[in-house]
Amino acid sequence: MVEVSVLGGVGYAGAIAAQLLYRHPFFKLAHVTARAEAGQRLDDVHPRTRVPLELEIFDVSKHAVDAAVVAYPHGAAAPVVAELRAAGTRVVDLSADFRLRDRAIYDDWYGEHKAPELFGQGVYGLPELTRAQVAGADLVANPGCYPTAALLGLAPLAKAGVIGDVVIDAKSGVSGAGRAPTHATHFISANENVSPYKINGHRHTPEIEQELGVLGATLPITFMPHLLPLDQGELVTAYVTPSAELSEDELVNLYDDSYAREPFVELRTGPVGVIDVRDTNFCRISWVQDPRTGRIIVFSAIDNLWKGAASQAVQNLNLMFDRPETEGLL
Amino acid sequence: MVEVSVLGGVGYAGAIAAQLLYRHPFFKLAHVTARAEAGQRLDDVHPRTRVPLELEIFDVSKHAVDAAVVAYPHGAAAPVVAELRAAGTRVVDLSADFRLRDRAIYDDWYGEHKAPELFGQGVYGLPELTRAQVAGADLVANPGCYPTAALLGLAPLAKAGVIGDVVIDAKSGVSGAGRAPTHATHFISANENVSPYKINGHRHTPEIEQELGVLGATLPITFMPHLLPLDQGELVTAYVTPSAELSEDELVNLYDDSYAREPFVELRTGPVGVIDVRDTNFCRISWVQDPRTGRIIVFSAIDNLWKGAASQAVQNLNLMFDRPETEGLL
Amino acid sequence: MVEVSVLGGVGYAGAIAAQLLYRHPFFKLAHVTARAEAGQRLDDVHPRTRVPLELEIFDVSKHAVDAAVVAYPHGAAAPVVAELRAAGTRVVDLSADFRLRDRAIYDDWYGEHKAPELFGQGVYGLPELTRAQVAGADLVANPGCYPTAALLGLAPLAKAGVIGDVVIDAKSGVSGAGRAPTHATHFISANENVSPYKINGHRHTPEIEQELGVLGATLPITFMPHLLPLDQGELVTAYVTPSAELSEDELVNLYDDSYAREPFVELRTGPVGVIDVRDTNFCRISWVQDPRTGRIIVFSAIDNLWKGAASQAVQNLNLMFDRPETEGLL
Amino acid sequence: MVEVSVLGGVGYAGAIAAQLLYRHPFFKLAHVTARAEAGQRLDDVHPRTRVPLELEIFDVSKHAVDAAVVAYPHGAAAPVVAELRAAGTRVVDLSADFRLRDRAIYDDWYGEHKAPELFGQGVYGLPELTRAQVAGADLVANPGCYPTAALLGLAPLAKAGVIGDVVIDAKSGVSGAGRAPTHATHFISANENVSPYKINGHRHTPEIEQELGVLGATLPITFMPHLLPLDQGELVTAYVTPSAELSEDELVNLYDDSYAREPFVELRTGPVGVIDVRDTNFCRISWVQDPRTGRIIVFSAIDNLWKGAASQAVQNLNLMFDRPETEGLL
C-alpha cells in the first residue's frame, strides 16, 4: 500500500486530488493539509469530495509518506517540495515551481525561486507527451491548465514540424482563478460577463513555448486567456499557420498517430464543448482547416481542475508507481 | 412626427428596437408585427419592453408608414423590404439581405436572393464608419453583430493600411442564436459550457472581409465564433499581424483619431468586459501589443442585441431622419 | 450476470441511469433504447455518460431482459411496462404511471391510465421508507423528484404523527423540465430568472399526500414548485406547523432515529445547498425551529436527476436483486 | 434645481441611485462619496452607471446639499444621517437604521443604535403604502428589499384584515449579499447552487412584522430567505392562511382596489418572474388560491437593487420634493 498526502487540500484542485485518491484502488490517502481550515473535515469545507478526513497543519515529519501531491501557490510550493524530497517522498507538484527549465525565465515571471537546488529537476508531467520520463520520476511538475489543453491540441503539429506560427485564444471557467474571494471572482463580476485578463502576459506563455520547443516547435507564441461565467472547463482555440501545406488526410493521420491509442484523448470532428469533459481526465480535440487562409484551427477542451490539475496529478502518480495509467480515473 | 413600424417584433432584436422607438423623443412607434403572436400585446410576450401595443400581422397597406425596422430572418427580409420600398417607406433592415455587394457571395452563403432588383442598394449602416452615406439613405443594411464589433475594433488599423493578417476569435451570448427553442439554446446545453460553432464557416466572414476592404484592407480573414453561457454580450479578440512596425504612440493616435469624438465608442486601456456595455449602444475597445510576436491584439465588446442590432438600427434611423445621432439612446 | 435495458435513454434521467448501470459491478447494461436517435451512440448524444452503446428502437422480444429501467413520459410508460412484465422482466419505472394507488386521482391528474390491469401494482421505491417492499418487488415505481426530497425531509415528522399542517416550497434546476426545447427551457428564458410554475396544481402534490398518508400523516398539503437558473438540483423548504410541541432534543432524536444509519441521507445542521449533493444519490437534510411561530422548517436537497430519478432507480435495482444497496453509487 | 449627494456610491445600490439621479430631469447629482475608491471615477468602478463623477471622501460641510441618499451599512448610516439632518439636508436612508420603531427590537437585531436621538423619526418609505407621509418627510427610511416585495404582495390582504397566518419564502439574487467578496459570493459557491441562509432569523423579519402591523395585521410571521444563482431579482412566495373565506371576486377586488392605479405595481394572473422587472422600479404581483387547503399564495417579484433599494429611493425623493412620482423612473 502506498500512502499519499495532499498538501493544500482546500484549494479547488487539492480537494479534487484528495477526492480521487480517497477512492483510488491502489493509493491510500493518508493526510490532507490546510492551514486556516486545520481541524475541520475536508467534507465540511468541500462536501462534494466526501472525504471525511480531518485537515492537518503540514508537518514534514508526519506527512512525508510515500508520495505527496502539493497544491500550494507558486513560490510557496518549492520549499515544501524540497523538504519532502529530502525526506524521500515522491512528489507531484501542481505549482509552476518545477515546470520551467530556464531559471531566468522562471525568475522573470514568478520571482526568485525558493529552492534553487531543485530547480529544473521536475519531470514535466503531461503523460501523453512525456509518459516515459514520468514513469521513473521522483518529482513531477504537473502542467498548468492552459498548457495542458494547448500542448495536447498542438503536439501532433509540433512533432511534425509544421507550426509556422500560432495564436492561442484560451477561455476558462472561474475556478481557474482560485478559491480566494476577490472582486474578479465575485458572482456579480463574473456572471453574464466575458473578458480577457492578464493581457500583458500570462505566466503560462513561457511554459507552452518551452514544451512546444521540446516537441520541435521553437517559436514565440501569442497566448491570450479569457474568463467565462462557468465553474469548470477550459477551451483552447489555437490558430496555426502551417509552415507546409497539409492535406486533410495528412492531418487526420498526424492526430491519429498521436492519439488513437491514448485513453484520455478523444479525437472528434466538429465542435467540442467543455461540458463534455466536465469532471473527467479527458481532453477532447478537434480541428478544422480554414480554406480561405490555409490555417489549421485546433480546439481542445479540458476540465481545468481535473485534466488541467488534479486528475492529471493522479495520472502521473499512477505512472510513477507503475500502476495502470487509468486506475481510479474512469 | 415620423411613424415607424417594427416588423418581426417578437425576436429579441425586434423587441428591443420597438422598446427604444416607443420611448424615442422623435419617432412614434406606430406598429409592431408578428405572425404567430399576432393579437397578443408585445409587453406580454416581452415584458421588459413595456410596449403595450398589440402585435399585428404584417400588411404593407397598413404598415408602410414613414419608416420601418425589419427584423426578419435572412431571405425572408428581402421581399418585404421590396414591398416597403415600393410604398416609399424608408427601411433599416436587420437581416443580411442588403449588406453584401457581391451577388455571388450572397447567394453562396445565404441562397438565392429574393429581391434581386434591390440587391446591393443598401447602405451599410455602421455609423462610425459610414455616417455620411447613412444620412441620406432610404435603405440601410444594419450590420451583423460580429461585424459591428470586429470592424469597430479593426477600423483604425484597416484605414491606416497596417493589417498584414488577422485572426478574429469571437465570443457571444446565447441571445445571438435567436429565440427559437433548439437543443443548442436549451439551458442545459448552453449553461456551464463553451464551444465554437459554425466551424466550417460563419456567414459574417464575407461581411467583415467586404467592409475591411472598403476601409482599405483587402485580405482573407480567419473568423471563429464561440457560444458562451450568458444572455447578451459579444467580445471580439482580434489578433493582428501588422504589415509595418507601429509604436505605442502611433497606435494611440490611430485609435484616438478614429474614436475620440465618437459618442458610442469607449476607448479603454486594459481588459474590457461585455457586462460594461450591456443594454447599451456603446462599443468598448482596447488593445495591447504583444512584445514577443509584434502582434496587436484588439478587444472589442458590444451588446449583440443593442449595438449589434436594435440600438444601432435606431442610431441609423436618427441619421436617416437628420436627428441627433444619440437621441433616444443615452 | 443480470442484464438490464434502459428504455428512453436520451432523456436526462435515462442517460444517467445508463451511465450508472454501464459501470455497475453487478448489472450489465444490455440495451439502451431511443426512437428519434436510434442508430446513434449514447455517448454521441450524451458525451458525459461515456456509454459507447448504440441506441436501439424498443422491441420487447429483444429488450425484455432480466430487468429494465423505463424512462418514458407519463402515459407512454404504462403500456411498455405491461409488455415487459408480461415477458417476465422486472421493472423500475421512472414515470408516475405506477406511483399512485387511487385510480381516480391518477386519471384526474394524468389522464386515463393505459395499463389499468397493472394499476396500483407498483411498489413505491423510496428505499429509505419502503426498503422492505422494494426488496421483493417486480415492479417498482420510482418516486418523483419533488416527492423524494419532500418525503425524506418530512418522514420523521410524519411517522411521529406531529405534522399539523405543511407548506412545501420547492425549487428546481432546469433539467427537471426535460430535454425537449421549449420557450421555458430556452437559456434566455431561464437564465437570470426565477418564477413559480404550475401554480394551479403540480402532479407531485397527490403523490406526496399519498405517501405522507402511508407514513401516518393524512392531510392536504400546499405544494408550490419554482424554476431556478441552474442545471441540476432541487431544494425543498417545508414549513411544518407541529400538532404537538417538540423540544429540540426530541426533534434531533426523530431525525437520528430515521436516518443515522441511512447511507444516502446526510443530516446536517445549518443551511444545505444543492451543489453539495450534485451528481450523487445523497439527500441532505437539516431543519430549524422558528421560535416566533413554533414552526419546524425542514430543508431537503437532492440532485433531481440522481436521487430524484436515475440513481434512485439503481438503488432500487440493487434492492430488487439483493445487492448491497450502495453498490455502484458511491 | 435640487442638489443631491449619494453617500456610499460604490455599493451596488448606491451606484444605481447615482446613475438614476445623474439622468434625472429635476435633481442634480452633486456628489458621490466613497472611502476606499475616492479619487476614482464612478464609471470606472461601475461602468454601467456611466456617471463620470469623481468619488469623494464624505465631508458634511461639502456634501450636505439639498438632499442625500445614504447607502451605508446598518449602524454606519445613523451617525452620518444625524450629521446631514443637523445641516438641514433631507435624507433617504437605505439602511435599516430608521426603519424600526421599537428601539428594543432594533438593538436586538442590529446592535445599539448610533443616533438614538433620531431613532424612530424616519418615515417608512414604501410609497404605495405610505405615500402621504413620505410627501412631507425630511428623513425617509427606504425599506429593505424583502420587506418591499413581501409588503406589496400582502398589503391588500393585511388591510382587509384577512391574514390569519403567513409563511414567506423569499428568493434573492447574489447582489443582495453586497459587493464585498466573500466565500458566499464567490462565483463557484453561488453558481449552480441554491440554499437558505440566515436560517435562525433574518433582520427583515421584524421589519415586515412591524409594517404588516401598521396595515392592521399584527401577527408573528415565518420568513425564510434563499440565495439563488442570478445577479438581481427577488421573488417572494407568501403562503397566507386566510382568517375568513374569500371568493375569487373578493380577492380580485382587494388587489385591484390597492393597485389598479399604482404606476409601479403590475397585477398579473399566472406566474411572475424576476427577469420581467429587472432594472426597473416595478413590482409584479399575482396570486392563486389553493383549493385543497384554502390558502392564498401570493407571488411578488422585484429587482432587489431597484424597487428594493435605489429606484425606490428616487421614488421617495420625487415625493419628498413634490415631483411626479414616476419622474426619472420610466
Automatic annotation (TrEMBL), chains A, B, C, D:
InterPro entries: AGPR, AGPR_AS, AGPR_dimerisation_dom, AGPR_type-1, NAD(P)-bd_dom_sf, Semialdehyde_DH_NAD-bd. Its EC number is 1.2.1.38. Its main location: cytoplasm. Keywords: Amino-acid biosynthesis, Arginine biosynthesis, Cytoplasm, NADP, Oxidoreductase. It catalyses: N-acetyl-L-glutamate 5-semialdehyde + phosphate + NADP(+) = N-acetyl-L-glutamyl 5-phosphate + NADPH + H(+). The active site is at residue 145. GO terms for cellular component: cytoplasm. Catalyzes the NADPH-dependent reduction of N-acetyl-5-glutamyl phosphate to yield N-acetyl-L-glutamate 5-semialdehyde. This is N-acetyl-gamma-glutamyl-phosphate reductase. It comes from Solirubrobacter ginsenosidimutans. The lineage of its organism: Bacteria, Bacillati, Actinomycetota, Thermoleophilia, Solirubrobacterales. The gene is argC.
